[in-house]
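Figure caption, in words: inputs first, then the predicted bound structure.
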Amino acid sequence: MNIRTRKSLPIFVLLCVLVTVASCFALLSPVPAAASSGSAGAGAVVAYPNYKVAVLLVTYPDNPTKPTRDDHAGVWTGDYLDQVLFTNANSMSAYFAAESAGRVSVTGQVFDNAGQWYQVSRPVERSGRCDWSPYFNEVFTAADADVDFSQFNSVMIFTPMITCASGGTATSGLVPDANQWYGVTVMNSSLNTYPHHELGHLMRLGHANSWECDPPGILTGTNCKEYEYGDRFGIMGASSRMLSLPAPQKEFLGWFSPGEVVTVASDGDYTIQNYETNGPVPKVLKIPKARDASGNITEWYFLEYRQPIGFDYVVNTPTIQELGVPNGILVHVGSADSSQNAISTLLDMTPGSTPSGLDIFKPALQLGSGYSDPVAGVSFGMLSRNAKATTIRVRFSAASLCERKVPTVSAKVVKNTGRAGQELRYDVTVKNASVLCGQNSFELRTLKIPAGWKVTIDRAKKKTAILTSGQSQKFVVRLIAPRGSQLKRYSVTLEARMVKKPTLKKVFPLQPRVVR
Ligand SMILES: [Zn+2]
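Bound structure (zinc ion present):
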């Protein structure tokens, strides 16, 4: 598997270490001449259409122990890493091929020094950081007899734990004689999605962050804070989950086709397909969030409807289902400035959903709920959903999204006729027919009952339910006529009403019949 052709040894001029990704990638502009973009989205930047990764396995004379595989079936080997990175169904190659819809390929070769790994000195720590440049030069020198570096544009070094590097580190450098840019990643922890994450950095992606306020704040309020890595639903956040990249990052990379991102400029109800749908169908709503003094848009909302398909299959796992992701829309904020590395920020649309601690784990805006940003002058909410699509209402006017409506009621007769003293039964369904008003309390109670009759609603005299817009609940209504009642049809009147706005009510009769 080794390429023996001797080529010029890359002398690594280390520009930066990605402890702070943003400051590092600023140094990487301009993108090399090989740069091209798979799709011609405005500002799209792809550093390389094809990532050719030389994987070097490195260890140290003071402790040559090799790291344990994630499945604990032995230690890292060249073949194992080849599978994890390039050939498995969820390998780094498979992930980026799917995410980019074939625009980017990731290929590579593992060099393990015939199973011995390359032995070098550990990197020296300076001010809490690894001093990478001499380390990389030593690694490249050790591997130089095996690796034709001109065949690669990225290097991944897999090594036992280096204390001055966190689980993985991406960095970048220049090979002067070839005038060629290299991305280098150091992996020294369990693998999981780390290689994907670090290659994402080499593609100039920043971290997937989150924005969190104390309830009821979403964008503004008390204790609002941006959490680096806080988007726990994808590879660029603090996640072991291999979900799709958020829309701001995919757009930055130029991985959407025309028609896939719908830019909203006027009021309307917009339907988007689930985020994982293949082909040029609408699957992201992009709504202006902030403008500069000249009125140019500087930030956008990106709305995505995630369903358990492809690399998003994990949204169907119980833990993520409980977090409401497949039932709602994820709202990310992304910058319009494509000269920066792409940082995406996930908003917590259900603040206070976790009793204590960070509650960004339940981030999706839920069906029937609306969101307003008075500074941007925009509101949006999720009107309806099915397995394949969702419809989202967007308003730029000052008017609220919320339209309060009289609840709808349907009464299904289970048993309408019986003898006096016998229980009659009705299933009454009350629906919150309001649109995008969030949760309201509804009460079902009796208004008028014939003398001596016993009426219960779910075993009580009246019953209250908290319903989100569009949501409904069934109540069981039981009637018992007193002994000696006349044999005839009677009328029982009930009412369903919104507790806080009782004029929004629906009055309806039941017509039980007493027989011999
Ligand atoms: Zn990172």
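Confidence is low (pLDDT under 50) at residues 1-46, 175-179.
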